[in-house]
Structure formats: C-alpha cells, structure tokens
Amino acid sequence: MKRIVLFGYRGTGKTAIGTVLAQKLGVPFLDTDALVEQQAGRTIPEIFRDSGEAGFRAREREAVSGLPDRDAIIATGGGVVMDPANMEHLRKESVCVLLSADPNVIGHRLAHAPRPALTSLSPTDEITAMLKHRRPAYAAAADFCIDTGRTTAGEAAEKILTLLGAGSIPDTARHTAARWFAATPLPAPEKEELERKLLGPGYDPQTRFLGVAGWPCGHSKSPVLFNRLFEHYRLNCHYTRFEAPEIGPVMEMARLISAKGLSVTIPFKQDVMSYLDEIDEAAQKIGAVNTVVFACGRAYGWNTDWIGIRKPLAHLSGSRAVLLGAGGVAAAAAYALRDLDMEIIILNRTPEKARALAERTGCRFGAWDDFDRTNPDLVVNATSIGMQPDTGSPLRDDQLKKEMTVCDLVYTPPVTSLIAAARKAGCTTILGTETFVYQAQEQFRLFFGIDVPDTTIREILA
C-alpha cells in the first residue's frame, strides 16, 4: 500500500487516529515527533529549551527524510508543512490527509499538553493565529480532509479508510464529468487520458485532478509542465484543461470532481473571484486571481503572476518603468513593479482604463502616444499583442533604445515580435517564459507545498 500521511495542528488526533489506522491495516505507525525525541535523546520541550525552534525543525527535517517510502501510517508535527523539503519527502507516493478541528476544541485538548508556546499570545489566541498562518500550507498538504472535532479516533479512522477505498468523487459525478469534458475543445489524446483516469478499468479513486481554466486555453503549456512534475515528484495527480466560455460551469465541474486546484487564465482572472471563499491580500489588491486551491470544502484564491513578474526584474529595483496595458496581467505587473519601488507610468490604447488602473495602484498614466516622452529604463508589455492571432509588436522599432530593458509577458511564442525588435536594437530582453517559470513555481508550492527548482521547470519546457 501507499503511505498514509496525517497532517494537522496539535490536538487534532494524528497520533490516536494513526495508531488505529495502523492496527486496522497491519502496517507500522510512525510519529515524527516521537522519532525526533528518540533520535535526540531528549523531549521536544527540552529541544526547544536548548536549541530553540530552529534546532527542533532541523531535527524534524532529518527525521522526515529518513521515513520509509511505503507501507506505513505517519503522523507529523503540526508545523512540518511549513518546510518545502519536508513536503517533498512526505508527499511522494503518499495519500495525505489533513485533520482539523475548531480552535476551541484544540485548546481544550491541549490544556494540559507539556509543549512550549510558539508565540507570546494566550493559548487560544496562539492556536487561532497559528492556524491562520499555516492555512495555505495545510491546504497544500491536503488530499483529503477529516474534521475530528466531534469524532472518536476509531470513527475518524473509518472515514479515512472509506476515502482510501472510494475516493471523494461519486460514480455519478465521474460520468457527468466525463461527458462534460468530452464536449469541450480538449485534444483527443487528452480526452482519452482523462476519461481513462475518471472511468477506465481499475481507475485509482485516490487520483486528484487539477487543470487550467480559460477560454481558450489550448495554447497553455501548463498541462505538459504539471503532469511532468507529478511524475518527477511521484504525485498521484492529473492535470487537464477546463475550457469553457464562462467560469461558472468550470468552477461547478472543479468542485464536482473534487479538484485539487486550478490555474486560471484569460478571461477569467477577475470573474473567478466571486466563486471563492477566501482571497489572498495581494490578489485582492491586484483584483485578479490566477491560482485556486480547493481544500476541505473551501476555495482559496491567489495571484502568482506578480511573483513571476517580480523575480526576473528584481535587479532593476528603483527603475523608471513604462507598463503597456491596463488589464488583469497589467494589474499584477503594476503590483510587482510597485513592490520593487519603481517609478511607473501606465499607457493604454484606452486612456480611461490606464487612469483607472493608475489610480488604484498609485502610478502615473498616459495615452499610448505618450511613450516617446517617457524615457524609461524598463518597458513591460502586459497587452496580448504578440500572441496569436495578433503577432505584431506594441511598439515601433525606432522607439526601442539600447539602454532599455524590455520584458514581454506574452510567452507564446517565446520570442515575440517585440522581443525580436528589442534584441535588434541592442536592448536587454526578458522573455515571457521567465515570468511563466516563476509563477508556475509559486503555483506548484501553493498546490502541494513543494518548492520546484526553476531549473527543473526550464528543463521540462525546453
């Protein structure tokens, strides 16, 4: 059998439930906290006292790295999810179950637990604060969720066994999903693969589904990238395309098949926000979501576009920048450039849209024809000009000066007309594939808690 890994805050029942599961399945039970104490020859409070939290986390990382790959039930410490190295080890060939409970229930269970405080807050306030802080990591860790607030260890173990046998997608939902995807523009090979994973003989009920949501999204490189990453990290997941003219049916289908997450692209980055339960602060300020994580019946929204834009431009902090465009991608770019303390002017064919985005982001704005008076260090193209079918350039060749750095956020094709002209003019150029690499890297961390080296993503995309 695969490993079953139990995640969750202290007091959610990982040890008690894990012990019952191990007995029922006839496999070893391992508790990472107990392993740390055994290997250190000291209790966890003593490790915290002598070495602090950093010393404990180092020992925890060592214990996690030595766990067996199969045939075991593993209970983890409450903070293990915060370390991407731990998640890479724990998610491999594993079924990951998040245990949760109301903070008041957890507080009652921990009232007499001899563990050091992690903050200066009261016990109840600390639990609430730590749960909020760890929420993204817990969502990333969850393949399945069990609320243990009102269950015995035996009852929770039975629920987990049911999920292992039947998964979280009813048979009727699998057939409905298969028909829905068959009616979309999915390429025939992808339709066949998806139908096999949904309904094929001997399908795995534990397989989790993810996908890119857009209209159209046939050009997206995400399915190839993520499915290769699933193979690399040995994750039981499949990534497809949710291609439909409206976001409502996409979100309905994603929930129907208990999707793990969605990459959201044009034209849904704003529309999807009304379907989410919680939205990250950066995404709220940008006004667009490109990443949705589903966990424990809730949908969480994030924007990783701005991170993908920021990373390759970090060395240009403080520059004068012209941002071309005023849509959702431009909003993410403005947020990234502001985070790098740049002086920004937004230009758009429709000045009113440039004004609206500028007022929202604290930038200057102008008409498209104002470009020649801006003298920028950096030009960022956040329009769709350069992407099929409009493969032209947003700027004339004579507007490009060798002192400029030109970043085109269009990544299909990798070398756009703008990039080709900028190279000819002697400009420093940054391809849209760079921003795609870094936003996908952050997206994978939100989906699974794992930090993928950018070199790995580049190798897959090459």
UniProtKB/TrEMBL annotation:
Sequence ranges assigned to domain Shikimate dehydrogenase substrate binding N-terminal in this UniProt record: 212-292
Domain SDH C-terminal span(s) in chain numbering: 432-460
EC number annotated for this UniProt entry: 1.1.1.25
Keywords recorded for this protein, A-Z: Amino-acid biosynthesis, Aromatic amino acid biosynthesis, ATP-binding, Kinase, NADP, Nucleotide-binding, Oxidoreductase, Transferase
Annotated binding of NADP(+), by residue: 281, 325-329, 348-353, 409, 432
Signal peptide bounds: none
Top-level class of the enzyme under EC nomenclature: oxidoreductase
Domain Quinate/shikimate 5-dehydrogenase/glutamyl-tRNA reductase: 313-363
Short name of any one Pfam family annotated for the protein: Shikimate_dh_N
Domain of life from the UniProt record: Archaea
Active site: 269 (proton acceptor)
PROSITE patterns recorded: SHIKIMATE_KINASE
PANTHER family the record matches: BIFUNCTIONAL 3-DEHYDROQUINATE DEHYDRATASE_SHIKIMATE DEHYDROGENASE, CHLOROPLASTIC (PTHR21089:SF1), SHIKIMATE DEHYDROGENASE (PTHR21089)
UniProt xrefs under HAMAP family: Shikimate_DH_AroE, Shikimate_kinase
Membership in a protein family: Belongs to the shikimate dehydrogenase family.
Protein name, UniProt field: Shikimate dehydrogenase (NADP(+))
Annotated source species: Methanoregula boonei (strain DSM 21154 / JCM 14090 / 6A8)
Designated gene of the protein: aroE
